[in-house]
Specification:
Order of helices and strands: EEEEEEEEEEEEE
Number of domains: 2
Strand content: 35-45%
Largest sheet: 5 strands, antiparallel
Structural class: mainly beta
Distance between the termini: 27 Å
Shape: elongated
CATH class of the largest domain: Mainly Beta
Number of strands: 13
CATH architecture of the largest domain: Sandwich
Radius of gyration: 21 Å
Length: 226
């Protein structure tokens, strides 16, 4: 492409889910126009009035949150059991952390992580394993966790949470935090697979505990997106 002078470029703003405009749809799109995603903070630029590329200088810090209503119908968890919302081996799915990076195949850094458990007064340590594709390791609730050999190249991070605690009384929800100033191994840099901005997770009990069936667990990751 020959070097061109950019004259009066236009600025667009919208959601990351919006279709970015092209000159075929709107004559107002010009070379050098920008599109700001106000929900992600990402800034894109078009070099040919059709294709949009992410400006690499953009760094965004974003909280990614996912929740599950935990099954727990089988009974107490033993150490290293999977914690999930389904105890059926044919339908159990991984925890999904969506939009972890700015663009498909991008990089990010987990700088903080927290767990909020609706169940009161439990104190297990837990583990969150993260993969850049759907893992084949055990996903079924209340089953002993595995780490399949096939997943060895998919695993991009592991967060070790200290024991949960109820901060005010034993009737409060149980929470735990991992950060650079606590145990847990943060920060951790990861890369998503090409074609996706998501990571898949397996949540595991390091200690035995009893979870009330249908109580929910929320995991929040604070991520710096490159």
């Amino acid at each position: 492409m020959a070097v061109r002078i950019i004259a009066q470029p236009r600025k667009f703003i919208g959601l990351s889910t919006d279709t970015k405009p092209t000159q075929a749809l709107s004559s107002s799109v010009r070379e050098g126009s920008t599109f700001f995603e106000y929900d992600t903070g990402a800034l894109y630029i078009t070099y040919d009035k059709t294709n949009w590329v992410l400006k690499s200088a953009t760094n965004v810090v974003k909280q990614i949150t996912t929740s599950k209503v935990i099954d727990a119908s089988i009974g107490a968890y033993a150490a290293f059991d999977v914690i999930n919302d389904d105890d059926c081996s044919t339908t159990a799915t991984a925890w999904t952390f969506s939009d972890m990076v700015l663009e498909n195949g991008g990089y990010g850094k987990i700088i903080n992580a927290s767990v909020f458990n609706e169940k009161e007064g439990v104190t297990p340590r837990t583990i969150l394993r993260l993969y850049n594709a759907l893992p084949s390791s055990q996903l079924t609730d209340n089953s002993l966790s595995t780490e399949a050999r096939a997943d060895r190249l998919l695993k991009v991070a592991q967060i070790d949470f200290v024991a949960m605690e109820s901060l005010c009384t034993t009737t409060d929800a149980s929470t735990t935090l991992a950060s650079p100033s606590t145990l847990g191994g943060l920060p951790q840099i990861f890369k998503c697979a090409s074609g996706t901005k998501d990571l898949s997770g397996i949540f595991i009990a390091r200690d035995a505990f009893t979870q009330t069936a249908t109580d929910d667990i929320t995991i929040a990751l604070l991520v710096e997106q490159f």
